[in-house]
Specification:
The complex is a heterodimer of chains A (355) and B (152). Chain A has 355 residues and is mainly beta. Chain A has one domain (3-353): Porin, CATH 2.40.160. Helix content of chain A is 7%, strand content 58%. Chain A is built from two helices and 18 strands. Chain A has helices spanning 3-23, 115-118, and strands at 30-46, 57-71, 74-83, 87-98, 101-109, 147-159, 162-172, 175-176, 180-181, 195-204, 212-224, 229-245, 248-262, 267-282, 287-297, 314-324, 328-338, 343-353. In chain A, a hairpin with a 2-residue loop joins strand 4 and strand 5. Chain B has a single domain (27-147), classed as D-Maltodextrin-Binding Protein, domain 2. Chain B is an alpha/beta fold. In chain B, a hairpin with a 2-residue loop joins strand 2 (57-58) and strand 3 (61-62). Chain B has helices at 3-25, 44-51, 72-83, 87-101, 112-121, 131-135; strands at 28-34, 57-58, 61-62, 64-68, 107-109, 125-130, 140-148. In chain B, the strands form two sheets. In chain B, strands 5-4-6-1-7 form a five-stranded mixed beta sheet, with helices on both faces. In chain B, strands 2-3 form a two-stranded antiparallel sheet. Classes of the chains: A mainly beta (355), B alpha/beta (152). Chains A and B meet through strand 1, strand 2 and strand 3 of A and helix 2 and helix 4 of B.
């Protein structure tokens, strides 16, 4: 499929839904939001093992296109990533608002942890160039399901000044072939995704404020016949927090992951723990600095992680970000990484913007 | 009336004058709607939700926040006193809500005349403005005092 064909396919569902919303008769007025997140990124990796699947030079560019429509209680939300090596509809959600809650049908970001539902694919929104390894997207070597397709119900209940938020997903998760492959909106018949359930409960000391801490759990059945297993039953539990007090911000999360890998005659169970903490400080209106430490605590022979040979076990990074004209950001990030067989350094430079 | 009583009376009158003068020049930040808004009272929690982009409906009318950016001090005080955020945090939070939930952010106005016109022409709209700005326009109604400059 050519790049232009891929773009057309990625945009088609969004255009169709937008058209339906605009011709739908009714008194409720409609509102439209469109956001564009272009980015260009270059990375250099040194010290890679000879058998590493990573490239020493990694360059990427793309445009993340986001559109939201609201008509009365109905919502539509779509996000398409048109990048150098990937053209995909990342989110396509039709929603219904019920008071302070919303029910969504479609493909959405799995509400596990904090990072995955805060930044989505908008590079400009996150301070660092890279995502934490444990929250990495499936097609970037991620080991957990970051996209689901099905039903998502989420909302916040206010109690006094504080808020109790929740997200509940009943959906299909990814299949494991070369990488985890979630439901493809453009090829709904492809793949053999199975059940995924996620619950995320969090508290906001001030309702709708930025500070929050929460707990989450996820269960996913991952078909993996291409990798020699009938199915992988993955159970995840964890907690997270986001604390902000201008100019400081601290984000942290921990995941306990248990995998039961089923073969026809036997099964194997392994588990690991992954955690990260990121600190950010805004120095002025333009400049910010940040650092992150992350680690995966797993056995050397963890059967599940062995299916992801490029998974980074440890990472420590630091970076600086310059915001120009409110909507452009230049970010430099340097990291020291330990994979399963190597230890390498990475330096990344990214321009990202939001329109 | 003896001399002492006269001094006391003069002192009382002077004090009363000073208090009245201080009250009339006191600067307040007001919550304002169009005169025919029919919205009733808006609670602090509702006001905060509305300006954070959270949908709030009253009698099938969606409350619409108009962000007054005509005076950086007024904006800053409003965000601190009502939203509990710095302007930087607030703007980041709005984008985050749009990107996550598809919510509508407040419409922003940098000219006071446009803001008042927006208020008059948009059913369910709310904004905040200084008391002297409010007094210079007709057809507006104050729904309450959000903040008073106690230093004056």
């Amino acid at each position: 499929m050519s790049f232009s064909q891929a773009i057309c396919r990625a945009l088609l569902p969004a255009v169709a839904v937008v058209s339906v919303f605009h011709v739908q008769p009714g008194r409720a007025e409609s509102h439209t939001q469109v956001l564009l997140f272009p980015y260009v990124q270059a990375s250099y990796l040194s010290g890679l093992a000879d058998n590493s699947g990573l490239d020493s030079d990694e360059n990427d560019f793309g445009l993340n296109l986001f559109a939201a429509l609201e008509k009365g209680r109905f919502h539509f939300l779509g996000e398409a990533l048109l990048a150098k090596d990937e053209q995909e509809i990342e989110r396509l959600q039709l929603g219904w608002r019920m008071g302070d809650s919303k029910a969504w049908l479609g493909r959405f970001h799995n509400p596990i942890g904090y990072w995955n539902t805060q930044y989505h694919h908008g590079a400009f929104l996150q301070t660092s160039v890279t995502r934490p390894v444990i929250a990495e997207f499936e097609d970037d070597g991620g080991v957990l399901p970051m996209h689901l397709a099905g039903l998502l119900i989420e909302g916040i209940k206010e109690h006094s000044k504080s808020g109790l938020g929740y997200a509940l997903a009943i959906a299909t998760g990814p299949e494991l072939s070369d990488e985890l492959e979630p439901f493809d909106v453009l090829s709904p018949g492809s793949g053999s995704q199975d059940l995924a359930l996620t619950v995320n409960i969090y508290r906001q000391p001030i309702a709708y404020g930025p500070n929050q801490y929460g707990l989450f759990a996820n269960y996913t059945e991952i078909p993996a016949t291409d990798r020699g297993y009938d199915e992988i039953r993955q159970t995840i539990a964890g907690g997270y927090w986001n604390w902000e007090s201008d100019p400081w911000r601290l984000i942290g999360s921990a995941y306990y992951v248990r995998n039961r890998l089923d073969e026809q005659t036997a099964n194997e169970t392994d588990n690991f723990v992954a955690a990260y903490i990121q600190a950010e400080k805004i120095l002025s209106d333009d400049w910010s600095i940040f650092g992150r430490a992350e680690k995966t605590f797993a056995g050397d022979n963890d059967a599940y992680l062995a299916l992801f040979p490029d998974h980074t076990r440890e990472k420590i990074l630091a970076g600086v970000r310059l915001v120009l004209f409110d909507r452009h950001a230049l970010t430099l990030e340097v990291s020291d990484n330990r994979g399963q067989d190597d230890r390498y350094r990475q330096i990344s430079l990214q321009w990202a913007a939001m329109y | 009336m003896n001399h002492a009583k006269r001094i006391l009376l003069r002192g009382f009158l002077c004090l009363t004058f000073l208090v009245c003068s201080a009250q009339t020049t006191q600067r307040s930040l007001l919550l304002v709607a169009a005169g025919d808004h029919g919205l009733g009272a808006v609670t602090h929690a509702e006001l905060r939700k509305v300006f954070l982009g959270v949908p709030v409906t009253r009698d099938n009318v969606r409350l619409k926040p108009l962000l007054n950016s005509t005076d950086p001090l007024a904006t800053s005080i409003f965000l601190q006193q009502v939203i509990y955020m710095s302007e930087r945090e607030y703007r980041r939070h709005l984008v985050s809500r749009v990107f996550r939930f598809g919510d509508q952010p407040p419409t922003e106005y940098k000219e006071i005349d446009s803001l008042v016109e927006g208020l008059r022409s948009t059913p369910g709209s709310l904004t905040f403005m200084w008391s002297e700005q409010f007094e210079s326009y007709e057809g507006l109604e104050s729904l309450g005092v959000l903040w008073t400059d106690s230093a004056e």
